[in-house]
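Reading a protein record of the kind used here takes little practice once its layout is understood. The fold follows as a row of integers, each naming the local backbone shape at the matching residue. With these conventions in mind, the following record can be read line by line:

_____
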Amino acid sequence: MDTLRSFVAGGLGITDFWSKPDRLSESFELRRFTLNSTASRPLTDLYELYWAHHYEAGDLRQTLWWALTLLTRRPFWRLNATLRGWFCVLQLLLLALLMLVGWLVVEQLRHDSIGQVWNSWKAWSAAAIAVVELVAGHFVTRSLADAARYLTPRPPNIAARNAIRAEGLALIRKLHDAGTYQRVVVVGHSLGAVIGLDLIRLAWDELRHPDPAQWADQTEAKLFSSAIEALGTYPANKELSDFQHAQLRLWRENRAVGVPWLITDFITIGSPLAHASLLLSTKRVSLSKRQADKEFPTCPPLVDGKTSFVSDNVDVGGGRLRNVLTGHHGAPFGPTRWHNLYYPVRFPLYGDPVGGPVHEVFGPGVRDRKVRPSAAGWRAWTYRLTLLSHTRYWVPGPKADDDQRRQEQDRATGTQEAVRALQSAMSLDIKRGKAFPPAAPPKGGSG
């Protein structure tokens, strides 16, 4: 719960909250945090999907081999040049380590017998592995190994992948069935962003169907194709804002016709989905092909002909048929907005190489937000110049900062403070019932 606690206190700037039992999860280790209602914010619950216990420590050699196979695949060389530079630096460091070991062995050959050299080779190799484990062992065997296993559907990894998704889907179903929530926001950091995308695409297929008894004129569904056309391929800020407003209107209309879908926003932070063309493609099937087959969603959704919807004639009883428009199974980002926060990377050491812009892979409807650390002074530079930036998205900055100076920094750097961008994306400051009216009055009025 440390991550969620720091997220609430740092990212949302709220220290006065209640820690209550998490009645929706089957884990006794988890709790939910409840934010009290204010004039501008409804009662809000925050849940954590904890999944790391499904993976034990990974194997150093297997994880490094997975990383090496990524470097040899064609999509790698299409990545951002700066990111390739990071990987090349790591390659050079590993190569230098191997050359050092080789040089020491050659020197040993000049003075000793073959048997002594063999023993020396084993000793120096063990020393090299020990150095790698000491410097980056925890990162490789934990964080990187988890990514390798979740992103690789090999037989040994399937059980854990299924368990993580099953627990996530169970939580989403219970949030929808609780009858107390007006909307749901899914936030995923790092590998959690990939898991969040999987949960959204899987849950959408279950929760996308309208209730025929709640029929209403589906004007927004009919106009949504026009909103996609107006968005274009390279939208400016205004076009992107207009499209996200259209998504929100579509979500409201879906609720009015009985679609139970509550997820209004998907927020990814430091997300490796920026490199999805490499990570989610296989040797035989590219990510773009899987998106065309609607295995992975895009934002905006890929259209069938001229619409993102399918038309169904539904029997409402008494032999009466009613025509309803239903988003197809690959269209969760019709009514769901996608925000992506990342620290821009500059070669050789600057920013967060794990994250990056997502719209190039998943569509122009994703709002990519370049951010900078909210912390000031030497802390901000430490985050920028080290991999610490990847875990410092919701570290708050000085309280008494001048808004005018912030705006000047926004314009000068083309970035926004990370904490402010996160708060803006979550939209918790919108009055209850005004922007997100439920289809039916919720029992407890929670957000």
Observations:
- The chain is about 45% helix and 15% strand.
- Residues 36-48+155-426 form one domain.
- The chain has two domains: 36-48+155-426, 60-150.
